[in-house]
Amino acid sequence: MIRLVLSLGLAVAFAAALWPYLRAIPEDLHVAAWAIPVYLLTLLPYHLARAGRWHFLLRPLGTIRAADSLRISMAGYMWIALLPFRLGELARPLLLTQRSDISVHRALGTVAIERVLDGLVICGLFFAASAGGTRAPIEALEQATTGVMALFGVALVGLLFMARFPRAMGGIIDATVGRVLPRAGRWASELSHGISQGLAALPRGGPLLAFVVVTLLYWGSNAAGMWVLAHGCELPLSPRGAVLVMAVMNIALLVPGGPAQLGIFQTGVALGLHLVLPPETIRDDGSVFTFYLYLCQLGTITAAGVWAQRSLRLDWRAVVRLRAEPVPPPAPAPAAEDR
Q1: Among 117, 130, 239, 324, which residue's beta carbon has the most beta carbons within 10 A?
Q2: How crowded is the C-beta side of 224, counted as CA atoms within 13 Å?
Q3: Number of C-alpha atoms within 13 angstroms, CB side, residue 160?
Q4: Helices 35-52 and 66-82, packing angle to 10 deg
Q5: Nearest CA to 273 among 257, 285, 261, 256?
């Protein structure tokens, strides 16, 4: 309850700060008739690539069907979008235990490496897209992005160290946290060991290349869809501008926000648009663009997640409680005399 109140307060604060620059609900919602249907079509490869790439990381860890990992990903991304403070990042590993023998700790390693690689890609896209110049000063944002990229780089090195030297990481935890808080140290050591196992089993060669290619397809379809929607809203956004807006939006989304990413999503889009378009354009057409961008993305993520969760009969209470639910054993086969 406390988390919900704090997250709602954060969402209201973001919305209030954003109001002078962007209308949350525009007065005129008119767009070209083709804009929303075409944008929704671009979201199909976006969702499939985003959810489907996880299978390349999971396959070495245990037996899991591609169709199951795809749907678990869709359900997990729904929870990432809906839950505050990015608590939904735990959803996929928690739901995965209901359909496979892969432990939560091992699956967390794949989620960690995916998040780090996404962060490095989006920071790289920001610097590439901003190299062509911007309308507004960008020094502060460049410094912040450099800091974020450095953090992701350190995280990547740490993850690779855990994968290469799992016992060493456990020893470091035992010698530090374990001496002061033995119980917390044991928990952290077990978590580190499980994550290390997941990282050590990461794919190499062809599967890893496939993961990278699908990741680039995911980000490319995202930027292309934003460019299409912008033109349907009569917003003069260039392809480079669409990449820059997408990058700034996703860098902003790294900040833990309120439920359904309300406020922080719009803030990221507004910051990106101010780098490439005049303020008066953003206040009008930019508000319409942001409204439909948020509505379509959140709506399709939620719809796909609900369908995926119901089709696999996943227990959503595991996500709300933030712990894995025990999977009931299969019912015994009927005895011969009962048949």
Answers
A1: 130
A2: 14
A3: 8
A4: 120
A5: 285
- Portion of the chain with pLDDT greater than 90, in percent: 41
Question: Chain-wide mean pLDDT for the chain?
Answer: 82
Tens digit of each residue's pLDDT (9 = 90 or more) over 151-178: 889 888 877 777 777 666 666 766 676 6
Q: How large is the greatest C-alpha to C-alpha distance in the chain, in angstroms?
A: 81
Cβ atoms of residues 243 and 123 within 8 Å: no
Q: What is the pLDDT of residues 289-302, one digit of tens each?
A: 999 999 999 999 99
Amino acid residing at 267: T
Q: Mutual orientation of helices 139-164 and 182-200 as an angle, nearest 10°?
A: 90
CA 125, CA 330: separation in Å to the nearest integer? 48
Task: Judge whether 313 and 73 are in contact, CB under 8 Å.
Answer: no
H runs (alpha helix) in the chain: 2-18, 35-52, 54-58, 66-82, 91-96, 104-130, 139-164, 166-175, 177-180, 182-200, 206-232, 239-252, 264-274, 279-281, 287-311, 317-321
Burial of residue 212, with CB atoms counted within 10 A of its CB: 0-12 exposed, 13-18 middle, 19 or more buried = middle
pTM assigned to the model: 0.84
**Predicted local confidence at residue 37, as pLDDT:** 96
Structure tokens at 204: 């190499």
CA distances from 276 to 233, 243, 258, 297, 320 (A): 16, 11, 27, 22, 40
Amino acid (1-letter code) at residue 68: D
Query: pLDDT digits over 2-40, tens only?
Result: 555 555 565 566 555 555 566 667 778 889 999 999 999
